[in-house]
């Protein structure tokens, strides 16, 4: 006994194929993907740069700041964390201002 929908190909919602063929949609997907990958690569460079600094040049990070006990590694590590937060904020801001606006325009045009 077959269950409902079993053995049938899933149908795409009406208009999905049309919107996927729209040049504006393709440009949006490409732009959003490229932007996301650039931010990802930047974060990886920051993170692995810090890790490689720890591995191969630990004396740089061991330098004391001022007369206290804090070394240079602490603010640099905090900088790595803050860079991740900042890059996330940059992506969210652009997504909300540009990508969502463009996607909403496409949805309106296609009645989605």
How would you describe this structure to a colleague?
The chain is mostly helical and 112 residues long. The protein has one domain (20-110). Helix content is 73%, strand content 0%. Helix 2 (23-56) packs antiparallel against helix 4. The longest helix is centred in the C-terminal third of the chain and has 38 residues, at 73-110. It starts with 15 loop residues before the first helix and ends with a helix.
SSE blueprint and pairings:
Elements: H1 16-21, H2 23-56, H3 58-61, H4 73-110
Provide a quick synopsis of the model.
The chain has 112 residues and is an all-alpha fold.
Tally of domains: 1
Main pleated-sheet profile: none
DSSP helix fraction: over 70%
**Mean pLDDT over all positions:** 88
Intertermini distance: 35 Å
Radius of gyration: 23 Å
Helical region count? 4
**Uncertain runs with pLDDT below 50, 5 residues or more?**
none
Number of strands: 0
Keyword list:
112 residues; 4 helices; mainly alpha; elongated; 73% helix
């Amino acid at each position: 006994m077959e269950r409902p929908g079993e053995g049938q190909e899933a149908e795409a919602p009406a208009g999905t194929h049309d919107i996927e063929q729209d040049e504006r949609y393709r440009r949006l997907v490409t732009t959003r993907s490229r932007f996301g990958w650039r931010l990802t690569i930047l974060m990886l460079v920051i993170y692995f740069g810090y890790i490689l600094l720890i591995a191969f040049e630990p004396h740089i990070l061991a330098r004391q700041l001022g007369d206290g006990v804090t070394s240079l590694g602490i603010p640099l590590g905090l900088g790595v964390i803050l860079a991740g937060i900042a890059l996330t904020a940059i992506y969210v801001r652009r997504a909300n201002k540009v990508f969502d606006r463009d996607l909403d325009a496409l949805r309106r045009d296609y009645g989605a």
